[in-house]
Design goal:
Length: 121
Amino acid sequence: MNTLIAAIGCVLLSVTAQFLIKAGMSSVAVKTALAQPAGLHTAGAVMLSPSIVIGFLFYTLGAVLWLAVLARWDVSKAYPLEGLGFALALMVGFAIGEEVTVMRAVGVLLICAGVFVVSAN
């Protein structure tokens, strides 16, 4: 397996997991449970939300794939590629109507520039 493709796959899984977990936490069922006093019902509503469960599954798959990346690359080379997740999350967030400020976009561009510099070696 191509290590770069595996690393990008990890980024994609991570970003997808984030948006799934956000969707689960924004669901009516979870918000209703969180409005109640904390207890097993609240924890159950959160932990049994399909979006949250699938989000954690994606995180798990990404972690397993990340092991393959780390077996082949130095952490100092691999980890900066995780910065691409910021750009992808910004684009997906913008596409679904989240507020994306100019400063946030500039910050993400700087992160991407850093990823390019690190990966050039």
